[in-house]
Amino acid sequence: MARRTTRYRVEGANALWHVYKTVPFLKVVKNFVVIQAARYMPFLSVKNMLYRRCLKMKVGENTSFALMVMLDIMFPEKISVGRNCVIGYNTTLLAHEYLVDEYRLGDISIADEVMIGANCTILPGVSIGKRAVVSAGTLVHKDVPEGSFVGGNPMRIIYTKEEMARRMEDREK
Question: How far apart are CA 16 and CA 55, in angstroms?
Fold first, then answer.
C-alpha cells in the first residue's frame, strides 16, 4: 500500500526554501528545544510528558523512547504511538518530506506493543500494526502488518503474524 501523504506543490525554489511559509518559525524553534532536551532525558515519564504537553503528540502509557530518538521537528503532532511500545536508540520519525517541487505531510501511527529497533527511520504516512517488530536499521517506507517482523532497506516482511506465532510456540517446546 502506498504511504498516505498529502502533497503540496511549490513554485520557484525547492520546497525547503519555502519552509517558513508551511510551518511557523517559532513553532520550529520551540519544538527543536523540546525535542533536543528529550533526546537526552533519562526519565521516560518526563520525556513522555514533554511529548504530550509541549508537542501535542499522542503517546500511550508505558511507552519508552530510547536515548537520542529524533522526532519530526516541524510536525510532531502528526505522530501517535500506542501503549507499551519501545522506540529504539537513534530512531527517526518523520511526518514531512521536502522535495524539489513539493512537500508532503503524513501521519505516523504506531499501534500498541510495537518494538522498533535502533537506528530506524519511519517515513510519513505509514502505520505500524499492533505487536509488530521492526528490526534495527530498517527504513519503514510502507505499512507494517499487525504482529509481523520486518527489516531491511528496503523494508520487507521477514515473518508474518502467523509465522511469528509458530516460532514462539516452537521456542516454548
Answer: 22
Distance, CA of 54 to CA of 167 (rounded, Å): 41
Task: Going from the first residue of the chain to its last (173 residues), give the mean pLDDT of each consecutive group of 10, the final group possibly shorter.
Answer: 88 92 95 97 96 98 98 98 98 97 97 98 98 98 96 94 83 79
What letters, b where the CB count within 10 A reaches 16 and e where it falls short, cover 109-122?
bbbbbbbbbbebbb
Say which CATH class 6-172 falls into.
Answer: mainly beta
- Taking each continuous run of H as one helix and of E as one strand, the counts in the chain are 4, 17
* Domain residue ranges of the chain, discontinuous segments joined by +: 6-172
Q: Which residues contact 26 (CB under 8 A, 6 or more apart)?
A: none
Contact 122, 140 (CB under 8 A): yes
Residue 30 backbone dihedrals phi, psi, to 5 degrees: -60, -50
- Give every strand in the sheet of 96-98, ordered side by side: 6-9, 102-105, 96-98
